[in-house]
Design brief:
Length: about 80
């Protein structure tokens, strides 16, 4: 996925900071907009899946590029 509205660079941050920063970013977005997140914490894969289930936001895509993770979340 290459289209997104906002980007969050959470590389170098460990749990729970990527989730907390994503939550703050999503709060300032409109419904339907997409947030791209870059992270290096391996735990962020499960964290963002759980985060989306709990908040009702949609995890549109996630990629693992050799230890760097990319997530696209559409705000509900």
């Amino acid at each position: 996925m290459s289209t997104f509205d906002t980007e969050l660079d959470a590389r170098g941050l460990n749990c729970p900071l990527p989730i907390l920063r994503a939550k703050k970013s999503i709060a300032g977005m409109s419904s339907g907009q997409v947030l791209r997140i870059l992270a290096t914490d391996p735990g962020s894969v499960k964290d963002f899946e759980a985060f989306c289930k709990q908040t009702g936001n949609q995890l549109v895509a996630s990629n693992d590029a050799g230890g760097e993770f990319e997530f696209f979340i559409r705000k509900a």
